[in-house]
Fold these 4 entries.
Entry 1:
Amino acid sequence: MRIFASKLSKLMNMKKYLLTLFAAALSLSATAQDIDTSKLSEYDKNAPFGWGAGITGGEGGETVTVETYAQLFAQLATNNTTAKIIYVKGTITFSGYKEVRNVKNKTIIGLEGAVLTNPTHSTVASESGILYMRDCENIIIRNLTFKSAGAYDMDGNDNISLIGCTKVWVDHCDFQDGVDGNLDATNSSDNICVTWCRFRYLIAPWPGGSGGSDDHRYTNLWGNSDSRTADQDKLRTTFANCWWDEGCKERMPRVRFGKVHLLNCLYSSSVTNYCVGGGYRSNVYIEKCAFTSNKAKNTPWKNYATSSGKTDYNITITGCSGTSDKQQRSGSIDYFIPSDNYTYDSYASSSVESVVSNSENGAGATLKLKDASGIEGIATSAEVQKVEYYSLDGILVAAPTKGIFIQVTTLKDGTKRTKKIIR
């Protein structure tokens, strides 16, 4: 009888232990994987909002860490829709753009210092660019630095191109020296949120490209043709707490068709021709942003809806520093008012420069992650003793089928790691 009682007690203790692990696993945030929130700006929500609200990326999926080009794209294979959180460690070098096609439900997040780079200047367009994402959905990209070889006008490729992609959140990334652009969205891409990103050029532009411009530091193109009527009611994007830093010449962004909200963003480049470009049927709302350089103040926006028969555009500027309020349009399209479409918080434009340019927690790849030993994918297979799966009521199962399960990984040193699995 005493033996039976002892076994029962052990079982009860094990169940209590497992329930504690399950509670911890279930409390993991969908978008805040392993981010040290104590180091964030007080204005950083650590989540997408606006036109990107509800993006979950790889929530509930397997966690892996990649260190090489081959490892990264094994996780981003064409038509891969399995939820997954991919941590990038170190520097991964490209020799040309890589197409990522019809991939869904992924979070790509850089460990501190992670870089994706294509450093070699080339006159061959296919040898430029980094990520070319086509028809992807529910994607999160965070805390990565993208470095290319410098602006060159040859109809080359971008650090990231979003082609027909929906539900994309790009957060705390540092975009440097894109050949064609730093981050572009075209072909009916939609429901995009870009937060706490830094755009800049550290390399002098390359002259003599076939496109004709000797200085193509044009950072963000949102819609690439006045004739692409399929973009109507698409390209809806919220930019918040982004920084167009030194070297940015134009397109911050340049918009066609889309309803684009620019909130608490910083414009400080000393070489700016103009900041925001309003193209055909663009509907742009610039709110509580800071234009701090003389050139940014001189031309905070420019009308590009000038082609015959394609002159419709709307722009609203409100509460910004460095420029006055304005509401102007051509045509009869209703003005886009973000608060009619979603709720959000903001702060005064007088604080934007100090908040967004803060080197510790402002725009760019400034996220601090918790102890790397707590990230599931860091463990190598040699460190793993066993992997077990449990139902939510604590019953050990052979393998997860459909539903929600808890994965418990036991390492050889006795450490146990848990995470939620959704199948």
Entry 2:
Amino acid sequence: MNERAKYKLIGFIMMFCSSSLMGGIGAFTRFIDAPGDFVSFWRNFAGLIALTIIFLFIGGFKKVKATRFSGMMLLSGIFLGLLSGLYCLSTQYTTLANASFLIYTGPIYSTILAAIFLKEKIDWRGILCIIAVVVGMLFIVGIVTPEGLTLDLDPTYTFGNAIAFASGVAYGLYLFFSRYREDCDSNVRSWWNFLFASLAILVLLLWHNFCLQPLSYTEKVNGVTQIDAAGQIITHPWNLFTMPLDSWLWLIAAALITGFGAFYLLTHATKRLKAGELAAISYQETIMASLLGLCLFGETMTAFQLIGGALIVIGGVSQIVFTTSAANKEVDDAAVDGEVALAAQVRASSMRTRMEWIRSWLLWPTVPRKLPTPTIGTIPTQTTAKSPDFAEGLAGEVRARPSAYALAKWVFLGGKAPAFKE
């Protein structure tokens, strides 16, 4: 497998992990006594807080300032917020099946837009993969059942269906605009995405509360939504300051896992994969949601849903095989291969450097020792660290190894390597 194929494979892995993490939001919200759009806000705001803290540790804001800001970065962040915020809002005004179906049309829009405006080619195999996963999605969310189509077009759901449709459009536009500015560092892009997504959902949250209806949450017992005698879902007025502690804990976990983790990986994946490739993997989210419902809440899966899950897996795996195989056979492109090779070289070099420093730290005595003159300014190796000259402490600088905290921070967060200080 050449570097281009590896580059693509890593993108598929990131997209798979991202969609799998996003599939867990339904399970988390069953234990959170808060409106869905408030949960959506925290999924992005927690990512902004986490990435800001990491940037403060590693000096990441220098790269943010050095990166040219553009409208595409603004739009991708706004639509990231709208796709989740509008979806949560739509579930209160239409059926869950309608809302799920309409938001999952998003990857189809992005594939079409990318083919028109970005000239991203998609062959007949890619089209078949997308058809397979879309049909699988229709089965697994319950739009297609043995009894026929369940898409409810009742006029009472018109407003909710419109919002759900808008969430699908926002999803597609997010994936589409994310394909621009591939020169931008993915960590920087993630920070901007989280910032503008949080602001977009905050505006949506205020509009919902003051223009539509006061914020409320559904009553749940052991994760099961409660229904009254008339068959209506039981809801209660929501207050930020009276939210139970356990709901806050579940919210924080959901925000970090299905928000920060999922959206961060999604930003990295959109840089590596074309829109059609992203679409073929994005529906993995529905499988994860169904599996969590099965394992945690004892929900059953019908034969149609199992077939749908199989179609999604087959379509996704086939897309990975087709893309990586094609990447192995393509004629070298100097610009693309140079970028991919450089990225691979930097990753490999960075990993080797970290391993060498970890080994040096373990070999270095806990008390300050003299470093032999010929090796001053270099990373001490196993040979120099155990050499007689070193052991005897010949003329040279007296160095002490950095703290374990400093070493761990550099290994995991990057930045400037810790020095063996005097």
Entry 3:
Amino acid sequence: MDKFRKLGVTEKIADNLRAQGICEPTLIQLEALPVIFEGRDVLGLAQTGTGKTVAFGVPMLQKLMSIGFSPKSKEVRALVLVPTRELAKQIVVALKSFQGNGHLKINMVVGGLSINPQKERLSKGSDVVVATPGRLLDLLSQSALCLKKTEYLVLDEADQMLDMGFIKPLEEIVKLLISERQTLLFSATMPKLMEKLAAAFLKNPRKVQVSSSGKAVDKIDQKICYIAKSEKNNLLTEYISANKDDLILVFMRTKSSAERLLKSLEKKGFSAASIHGNKSQNQRDNALKLFKQGKVKVLVATDVAARGIDIPDVSFVFNFDLPNVAENYIHRIGRTARAGKTGISITFCAPDEMNMLKSIEKLTKQVIKVESGVRWIESQKEKSVKQENLNKKEPSKNKFRRFRSKSKSNGQNKKRNRVKRNG
């Protein structure tokens, strides 16, 4: 018998999964599916790219398919909340593929698209609505949908929603739902605020954990380059030139820096595109489409878009800038080594990013393997100055220098950390 069938998946959906190349249940699916089929609330903690959509989507679809009649006008039977437009679209596509030629109405509600077509679709009733919190609240304020009969709630990538400041919107939305519902909360990391959220939203949940909080996918080869900020662009160019046939994803900290890097890469003749908050939904969709098709080899992105990129063939993830939030490192590098494949993540660390790196190391409980350069450390003089500033309760500048013996000159030290072109 099919392994999914043994877990309680119907023959029709198991066939649809197989048609999508999903034949073997992942760890999170093996752990979560039986519990969700029982109707229990679930707190799921799993590495990104491990198949959480199947884990929460399949039981939800089977439950809805068994109802036998269509939802009424504006009615929503199941609600899936996500942090980004890209992730919402990814989930909608996946759910539609799972049900095949089924009759369920699966609608997407996100910002960046015209609100009127969304209102029109919602007016006909929805079996499933996949939504970002902001746009959902806009539509609720216009009475475009009703959540009074929503019996199935999923919060996917909940930690990112907290990072993006969605805690209040989430609380507002959940207050509108009936208490007798099944709630599933999935996340790749588990910050303390997440535990409070789970306690407020879930009833006697079963915790399904297939990885430690902050643990990256095991098949990712993580590397770090200690390099001056001014040298990052040239180093990235060398890596891209040496791996022209691979799909490369580059993460930046800000929208403006993402655009500057994109223009720089295009001037050098590389096929590149970018996605970030200043791009329209159509621009973002088109960039992802070209990247997935391999027509664009380099995609420059910000953290806002990190959760919606599900492209199995990404070979390299570059952290051009380190993320301000340590958990985002896990989500960034999780865009490679998906669907059982291997991948490489390379982080560029400048002196003023050492505090961010230390936060990442504390979260992941590991020191990233050095690809090039030497770790930046504080000098005794700088430590003394910082301590004096702290004692005065004044902000101090975080400066770092290379670790070197006294015999090394500054010029020799910089030369040591230049990276030669790969091939």
Entry 4:
Amino acid sequence: MKSVKINIKKLGAIRDSELYIKPLMIFSGESGLGKSYAAFLVHYFYVILLTQRLKLYFSERKYNFSKILEKRKNGDLLLEVQVKDLISWINKDAIAYVGYLIGNEKLDGEVVFGIPYPNDTIRFEYAEEIVGLDNNEEVYQKVKTDDFVYRIMAGTYDATATPFVELIKAELMATIFKSYNKLRRTYLMPPSRGALMELAERPAFRSGMYHEFFDFKAALARPLSKPPVLSDELTDALFDVNDGSLKQVDGKMMYYTKAGAEMPLTAAASSIKEMAPFTLFLSKFSASDSSVLLEEPEAHLHPHRQVKVADLLACAVKEGCHLQITTHSDYLIKRLNNLIKLHLLKHRLNDSQEYKDLLQKWQIKESYVIDPSEMVAYLLERDEDGTSKIRRQDIDIDGEIPFESFYKVIEEDIELSRDIKNLC
């Protein structure tokens, strides 16, 4: 994956910070400093690549696609998009999108996306292709860039931005991931999602993040022509997190305990409900071609279960999933740290029997071990003026996600306990 950098000059409380996008991204820090805003910004990057959001770029510029495609000949230039103009639009649209997610249309901000596209323009040319048996041929119209072709059967197409959007997405995906179909979908799982799993109808939300969540619920309900086959490792990780399994049966979400009992999801513990969206997502779709923003996966979970969630996140990333995680959990981060250290230990011991015995002793699967080059951790810190900065935590040097934000709270609590004890 090529490096994609986001400079944040201003976004909510955040000032003068930068993000680098990686498959696994962890955001921690005190409440109110902008963890969710930063994660939303990264989610927007995937929205641009994987949804039809770019249609807004063309609609705002009022392109007449009927005229663009009218009476064209092979080799004609249909359109030329200036990459600088496109990225400038993305920078502004990112603020509008984050504002939509949080229900604040007047959100003020300034960000700059560093998308490593090598050319100054994206050129779209027209071509025709005749296919079929003699005397029964069909004509296909083609919209082409340097590397990709979008085919349309002649006479079946209403002139819209779709071919141009799909080709831009393919160009950007191929540049960043070396494959235009590396990822296919992105979803957002907001706070308090567990309670929303019980609602059959979409309420009138003020914030767009919950509208997106209900779009995800609708996707869960749609049948797939070819459901993915879950790996044994992912199946086991899901079972451990839920202490059982979740399934959709006749339109209802059912929970099956390890002991064999069954009940509707509405009757399950809040920890099961809160993890249900991510569980059902991994059961329904392929982790290998998906991106998910998961807010506070530790919510309502006992520390033992939080450790299992870290294993599940690591397993999903190992299978190709891109994850953006916000968290307040030291248990989650401690476990992620141990999974990072196991990766480093594996190479230090040359994958020896001693390393394998350690995994077996602690019942940790190889698929849970995290390559630190695949992840990045960010800590949001408060400045004296009440704003915040995002600090990249140096996993490479420490071999773990640094813990200072949690240590400070622990040390203060120990000092308070000492003072109380001295006066008793």
